[in-house]
Structure formats: structure tokens, C-alpha cells
Design goal:
This protein is an alpha/beta fold and 401 residues long. Strand 9 (166-169), helix 6 and strand 10 (188-190) form a beta-alpha-beta unit. The chain is 38% helix and 19% strand. It folds into 2 domains: 3-194 and 384-400, 3-Layer(aba) Sandwich (Rossmann fold); 205-382, Rossmann fold (3-Layer(aba) Sandwich).
Length: 401
């Protein structure tokens, strides 16, 4: 063995120069623990699939280049071993088998004290490595891994529940979901994601453009579960019924649902779509849009197959920028957006409630400022990445002992 690391972190989609905006929280965690003397190695099995299979994948990402050697990504050591990935709808278990083999092969020359798998799928794929090396396995869950795939993974999740040493949930709601799936409650901890306040912070009032339209902002991957179509319907109703207001809905992102959204917004010039992935720095672009908007919206919904969110990072980031949020009573969101304090929560799929809430903000700038201020303080106290990284460090040190 050539090199020893403290933590082996497993994440399929780790940030790369091709896709710098994905899984940024995993990167921030790696930086945070490095600064406190714990050395991580990231292994990011990188999917390889023929171009004709693009239509099967929800993530419309520029393909990250595999690299079986260690590379330095902005100060974090990463290996990106290639593995063949076929559509999960039909080949989930064979994909996980190849994922597992890629991890084992990529780490054969290294030692480490603990494995931290990000998402339940990665936890399942890490079981064999844990057993081979006889070291602890931590698995973090994030939401969609407890959705539609949980039935396909039921047997594998039972094995993970028995083999894994610790399971991290983002919220009380996720804690309950894990327990209902058979994960031992004694092994489940709630660990929140955090935001980097050096990147996301309120804009100075002295440089706010008061002549700009009142802007509602959505930043999300264009997928049905984000509920963007619900927000568009609500905004269209307001635009049609109150033509005196200078308002705008800006929707930032990209994804497989975009044609549906474009069609829904047709004819409304005050609904603007922007693909941040084409910007030179997609993360800085999002930060700027959050600072410039008035209210942030993410009306997430539960899909018929059970797929839902965890605690969306964009809701944390927007509040760190001092923006009130409108979202839904969905999954762990009520722990991120405090209803009637840092924003408002509405019923899933309720266009009427969304119309009422958006209208309330349009006609009350004092409320926007008051809730935005409370939002910033709430995130600073409860979702600061420095604090959350310290908690993660304690988790690592405890399980290593």
C-alpha cells in the first residue's frame, strides 16, 4: 500500500471542470475536514455510456472525463475510475456491481480508516469494500435515494442496514423514512448540509437597483419533482390579473423537463429562463442571481412513485443571501424554511396558495426585508458549513475510535 488516508469518500457525481456545480456540498465537506487535519480521498466512479443512451439519463451533464490516477481538484484529491452505466430503470443491480468493482480497483493501493458513501446507492456499492477492509462504513442519504429506487433496492438496503455502521439523514422526515425501511434507529443521526458564507451572503443595500422588476427566482434542475410548473402557473395568474406590477419570474437551470416548462411559459415575456451551466462560473452566477432577486421559490412535490427531496441546498443558499423563500410542506423543507418566519410554506401542487403567497410579497416590501433578515440569521445559526463540518469531524473521530 502506497498511501494512507483518513476518509474514503464515495460520490458518483463529484465536481469536475466539466461540471463544477454538482455535489458542491461533498467538495465543501472535503475542504472543511482537510482544514481540521483529517485527510480525505474522493473516489468518484465516472459513468461511461454510448451517446445513444443519453435520453435515458435525467442528468444532462457534460461528460466528466474519467481518470484512474489521483488528480487535484481545487485542493481535493480525486480518483475518477470509469465504469459502464446502463439505464437504472432496467440495470440498477448490474450498475451497482460495476460501481462496486470500480471502487475496489481504484483503491487497491491505498489504506483508509473509514468509508463515507454519499447516497444510498453508493452505500450499497461500498459494502464489499467495507467487508474486505474490515473498516467502518458511513452512508449519507439525500432524498431521491429513498424514492422510486427504494423498492428495487429493498433487499440491498436490508444488507446495508445490517452491514453499515452509521446512517446520516438530512432531517427528521428522512430519519423516519430510514427507520421505516428497517435501518436501526440507534445507527441513524441527523446531519444537516451547510452553506459557505464566504460565497453566499446578503447584497449590500447601497447597490440594490430599485428600478429593477420585483423578481421571483427559481434555481433547480428542470425535473417534475421541483414543482417549477406549479410556480409558472401561479405567476401567470398574477401577471394576467394584476398588470400594474413590474414583476418577473427568473428560472435558472437545465434538465429533461425543460421543453414542458418552455411550452408552459410561452407568451409571457416576464418569465425568463437562464442556463447557468453555460456560464464561465456557474456557481458564481447562481450566487449573483440569488443576491439580485427579491424572493426565492422552490415548490417541491412528491411524485407518484414516491420520489421526493431531502433538504434542497438552494433553499439554504438563498436564505444565506438574505432572501425569504416560498416552498412546500415537503420532506425536510420545514426544517430549512421556517414557516411564517423565514418564508412561507404552501401545500404541494396548490397554485392558489402559491398565488396568495407571492402576491403577499409583491405588495409588502417591508415583509420581504423582515423575513429575509430572519432567514439569514436562521441559516447562519443552523446551516453554517463551518459548524456542520465540525459536527462531521466529531462523527468521523468517534467512529474511527
Amino acid at each position: 500500500m502506497d498511501k494512507s488516508y483518513d476518509i474514503l469518500s464515495i460520490r458518483e457525481y463529484f465536481p469536475s471542470k466539466e461540471n463544477p456545480s454538482i455535489s458542491t456540498w461533498v467538495f465543501n465537506q472535503a475542504i472543511g475536514i482537510q482544514e481540521n487535519g483529517i485527510e480525505p480521498l474522493i473516489v468518484s466512479p465516472t459513468p461511461y455510456y454510448p451517446n445513444f443512451l443519453d435520453k435515458f439519463y435525467k442528468k444532462r451533464l457534460q461528460k466528466t472525463k474519467p481518470n484512474s490516477s489521483i488528480e487535484d481538484y481545487n485542493g481535493v484529491k480525486v480518483i475518477r475510475p470509469p465504469y459502464i452505466k446502463l439505464p437504472n430503470e432496467y440495470f440498477l443491480h448490474s450498475n451497482l456491481s460495476r460501481f462496486s468493482k470500480a471502487i475496489i480497483l481504484a483503491t487497491k493501493d491505498f489504506t483508509f480508516k473509514t468509508i463515507h458513501a454519499h447516497f444510498g446507492h453508493a452505500g450499497v456499492a461500498s459494502i464489499k469494500l467495507k467487508q474486505n477492509r474490515k473498516i467502518p462504513l458511513i452512508t449519507s442519504f439525500y432524498g431521491y435515494d429513498l424514492g422510486s429506487d427504494k423498492l428495487l433496492l429493498q433487499r440491498k438496503y436490508k444488507e446495508l442496514a445490517n452491514s453499515g455502521d452509521l446512517f446520516l439523514a438530512l432531517s427528521k422526515d428522512m430519519h423516519k423514512d430510514l427507520a421505516e425501511l428497517g435501518f436501526p434507529e440507534s445507527k441513524i443521526l441527523i446531519h444537516h448540509l451547510g452553506v459557505n458564507f464566504a460565497q453566499f451572503f446578503p447584497k449590500s443595500p447601497t447597490i440594490i437597483n430599485k428600478e429593477a422588476p420585483f423578481t421571483f427566482l427559481i434555481v433547480a434542475s428542470f425535473e417534475e419533482r421541483k414543482g417549477i410548473h406549479i410556480a409558472i402557473e401561479a405567476f401567470k395568474w398574477i401577471s394576467r390579473n394584476d398588470t400594474t406590477k413590474n414583476i418577473q419570474l427568473k428560472i435558472v437551470g437545465d434538465g429533461p423537463y425543460k421543453n414542458n416548462l418552455f411550452a408552459l411559459a410561452k407568451g409571457f415575456n416576464n418569465i425568463v429562463f437562464v442556463n447557468n451551466h453555460t456560464a464561465s462560473n456557474p456557481r458564481a452566477f447562481v450566487q449573483q442571481e440569488m443576491q439580485n432577486c427579491d424572493v426565492f421559490i422552490l415548490p417541491s412535490i412528491t411524485l407518484d412513485n414516491g420520489e421526493k427531496e431531502g433538504t434542497p441546498v438552494v433553499l439554504i443558499e438563498a436564505q444565506a443571501c438574505g432572501k425569504p423563500c416560498i416552498s412546500t410542506f415537503h420532506a425536510g423543507i420545514p426544517e430549512v424554511v421556517v414557516h411564517n418566519e423565514t418564508g412561507f410554506l404552501v401545500k404541494e401542487k396548490s397554485v392558489n396558495e402559491l398565488v396568495d403567497t407571492m402576491s403577499l410579497f409583491i405588495n409588502n416590501n417591508a415583509l420581504v426585508f423582515e423575513m429575509g433578515n430572519k432567514a439569514y440569521k436562521h441559516i447562519r445559526l443552523n446551516f453554517n458549513n463551518q459548524n456542520q463540518n465540525k459536527i462531521l469531524l466529531d462523527i468521523y473521530r468517534g467512529i474511527i475510535k
